[in-house]
Design goal:
The structure holds two protein chains of two kinds.
Chain A lengths: L2 H21 L7 H7 L2 H15 L12 H16 L2 H18 L2
Helix pairs in contact in A: 4-5
Chain B lengths: L2 H13 L6 H14 L3 H11 L3 H12 L4 H12 L1 H13 L4 H9 L3 H13 L7 H25 L9 H11 L8 H17 L8 H23 L1
Helix pairs in contact in B: 1-9, 2-3, 2-4, 2-9, 3-9, 4-5, 6-8, 8-9, 11-12
The chains are: A mainly alpha, B mainly alpha.
Chain lengths: 104, 232
């Protein structure tokens, strides 16, 4: 690998982070746009969450032999009830460990 | 404690629990870099220059698979395109800052830092030093990522795969969405995003499934918002 490839990849990544912060001025966005942008976490994070949970190493959907789905559901329930980030992460992780140990 | 230091500390504290899965992730990245034989300097160099966990691993995987530079750079760009949206969301709070600040804060803007600081900006928008929160959360991510990369380089494969630590990454992002679980529109947007990404994972080229799924979900969010506004 050449360092130039790493530097180009670094520049591209920086530009994705910097572009809007640099270009957008405070009053350019109206309330409607702000309202829509408030959905950004809900629009992006599931795209990161879903594939590793539902897909196996080969990239096919695995619904049966898959403790991650059950563990994620338990984490969602705990998150819904507790509204606590740490409790949600640990509920999912501990239930995942228990599931692979006793069941899967 | 003065206000800046207080806000900075708040940023560090808010993002800290989210750093738990980042440590094994960084170690795994360091191990992959060493396994592929690019050496310790390049492995750490990627973490410092790119500073984007998933895109670094994808870059290494594509490189080891013999992909062309164009494919590698397109994939890194597509994978990190979501940051454009983070920037758009945060710009409202950062637009008054000096260029130097914008550059520094852009460099450290990760998913986790964005999530906690965006929540903070929305809640505490009277604070004139609120950007110190993002500085604190972002540099915490940065420091943890560099340290865990070095740990991976030095220690090698000490994290057993069976513990499912990669699953913890999914759980972190899931935990960041808990306030959305109670809103019906947000649930629809989340489901659209997740389903499109799962279906598109194998079919959308250049690892662009995240940004494609996000944009489709945002279109749905736009429609839901417009319908809502019309009703009122």
């Amino acid at each position: 690998m050449h360092w130039s490839l790493i530097i180009y990849a670094g520049i591209i990544t920086f530009v994705t982070r910097f572009s809007m912060i640099f270009l957008l001025k405070e009053d350019i966005l109206n309330n409607k746009a702000k309202k829509i942008l408030s959905f950004v976490p809900a629009a992006i994070f599931p795209a990161i969450i879903f594939p590793p949970i539902f897909l196996d190493d080969g990239g096919t959907v695995d619904l049966e032999n898959n403790p991650k789905i059950l563990a994620a559901i338990l984490a969602i329930i705990v998150g819904y009830l507790s509204k606590n980030i740490i409790a949600t992460i640990f509920a999912g992780l501990i239930s995942y460990w228990l599931l692979i140990f006793f069941y899967f | 404690m003065n206000n800046r230091l207080k806000t900075l500390t708040k940023g560090i504290i808010d993002v800290s629990p989210l750093m738990i899965p980042v440590v094994p992730f960084g170690i795994i990245y360091g191990v992959i870099g060493m396994d592929l034989g690019i050496g310790p300097y390049m492995t750490l160099g990627l973490s410092i220059i790119i500073f984007g966990g998933a895109s670094q691993i994808v870059l290494l995987q594509l490189f080891s698979g013999g992909a062309s530079s164009l494919v590698i750079l397109s994939s890194v760009g597509a994978l990190n395109a979501r940051h454009v949206l983070y920037g758009a969301v945060l710009s409202e709070h950062l637009s008054g800052l000096k260029l130097f600040w914008k550059i520094i804060l852009s460099y450290v803007m990760t998913d986790q830092a964005f999530a906690v600081s965006n929540d903070y900006f929305k809640k505490d928008n009277k604070n004139n030093d609120q950007h110190y929160h993002l500085l604190g959360s972002g540099f915490t991510c940065w420091t943890i990522w560099q340290i865990s990369t070095i740990l991976g380089i030095v220690l090698g494969s000490i994290v057993p795969e069976e513990l499912g630590l990669s699953f913890t990454i999914s759980l972190t992002f899931l935990a960041l969405l808990i306030s959305d679980f109670r809103k019906f529109k947000n649930i629809i947007v989340m489901l659209v995003s997740g389903l499109v990404a799962t279906i598109g994972y194998n079919t959308i080229p250049f690892k662009a499934y995240i940004i494609v799924a996000s944009l489709i979900a945002l279109i749905v969010a736009t429609l839901l918002t417009l319908i809502d506004l019309k009703k009122k």
